[in-house]
Design a protein that fits this description.
Elements: E1 2-9, H1 13-24, E2 29-33, H2 58-71, E3 75-78, E4 81-86, E5 91-95, E6 99-107, E7 111-113, H3 121-124, E8 129-130, H4 133-136, E9 144-148, H5 152-162, E10 167-171, H6 181-187, E11 193-196, E12 201-206, E13 211-216, E14 221-223, E15 226-229, E16 233-235, E17 244-245, E18 248-249, E19 262-264, H7 276-295
Helix pairs in contact: 1-2, 1-7, 5-6
Residues 49, 116, 148-154, 156, 172-174, 178, 200, 230-233, 274-275 line the site of NADP nicotinamide-adenine-dinucleotide phosphate (NAP).
Length: 297
């Protein structure tokens, strides 16, 4: 069994940041990731509120950070963590293939897209339903799509799709969008974006291979080629039984969870603001506190 001082689980912006600080402090760190490094960044078509960049797309920022991590020779294991076992003197991280013993764990497992949980939703994922305009938008070139939601993600998705698709309809359950003003103003530049307020999607219609229309709760059925769901996220953290609120991990001021020596940062934790900048700050704090503990400073 391999032994490490710190295992970081998840390689989004939080996990990669933590690994940079740990490695630069001379700590023996292993990052475990079951997907491409970058996490939610890989789904973001435009980032305009991260200091230092007037504009950068998410995958480019993810790749820049990953290159920095690679240049530091941070060890990676591309595998799925299935469980973390905790005892007083050690933690065992179990992946699909192996077990790793370590002193500290950082949970930076992020969140996954929330679903509407309507009938046939799972069946149509990849056959008309998508959670990522940047990944799938080109499949809907000159076609008609809807974006469900009214927050920052929904408006960002709509703005990206408006450059590709014939028509984009935002379907939002409230009477006004909750995205930030700068994003909402962007909608005015497009005459192919329409917003349906106080409206919900009730049903997906189509043959087994693709969506053809959606039925709305106002009684209308609209023809669509694609449905982009952007109704928020649910945290991913079922690896160990730390204290949570609504599924989000609770951490103290040092970013330590209810279990000693297990830390958490990024979108998996309970907090007020879910931003790249906040994830980086939390990861920096979590890593720095572990470094201080290891070095006794
Ligand atoms: P969000 O802010 O939680 O917005 C979710 C949207 O989906 C809301 O309009 C919500 O409506 C709607 N919704 C939720 N459940 C629904 C349901 N069952 N049926 C229909 N509509 C539903 O989520 P987000 O936009 O994905 O953003 C998540 C976090 O990431 C936020 O903190 C956001 O600021 C951040 N983010 C930031 C940026 C940026 O800074 N550019 C970009 C993307 C995300 P209600 O309001 O009625 O609940």
């Amino acid at each position: 069994m391999q032994k490490r001082e710190v295992v970081v689980i998840g390689s989004g912006v939080a996990g990669m940041t933590a690994s940079i600080y740990l490695k630069r402090a001379g700590i023996d760190v292993l990052v475990i990731e079951c997907d491409a490094p970058g996490g939610q960044l890989n789904k973001s078509s435009s980032i305009e509120n991260y200091p230092g960049f007037k504009f950068i797309d998410g995958p480019t920022l993810a790749m820049n950070i990953y290159e920095q991590v690679n240049d530091l020779n941070v060890d990676y294991l591309f595998d799925k963590v299935v469980e973390i076992k905790n005892s007083n003197d050690k933690r065992i991280v179990k992946t699909a293939k192996e077990e790793i013993e370590c002193d500290y764990v950082i949970l930076s497992t992020g969140r996954t897209s929330r679903m509407l949980n309507l009938e046939n939703e799972k069946k149509y994922i990849g056959k008309g339903i998508s959670f990522c305009a940047l990944c799938d938008g080109n499949f809907y070139k000159d076609k008609n799509v809807i974006v469900i939601g009214g927050g920052n993600s929904a408006v960002e998705e709509a703005l990206y799709l408006a450059n590709i698709c014939k028509k984009v309809i935002i379907v939002h359950r409230r009477d006004k969008l909750t995205a930030e003003e700068a994003l909402i103003e962007g909608i005015n530049k497009y005459d192919n974006i329409e917003i349906l307020y106080k409206t919900n999607v009730l049903k997906y219609n189509g043959d087994d291979n693709k969506i053809e229309s959606v039925t709305l709760d106002n009684g209308n059925t609209i023809d669509v080629d694609g449905v982009f769901i952007a109704i928020g996220y649910v945290p991913i953290n079922n690896l160990i039984d730390v204290k949570k609120e609504n599924g989000y991990i609770l951490v103290d001021d040092n970013y330590e969870t209810s279990i000693s020596n297990i830390y958490a940062c990024g979108d998996a934790i309970k907090k007020n603001t879910y931003q790249i900048a906040t994830a980086i700050g939390e990861a920096t704090n979590a890593a720095s506190n572990i470094i201080r503990k290891i070095k006794g400073t």
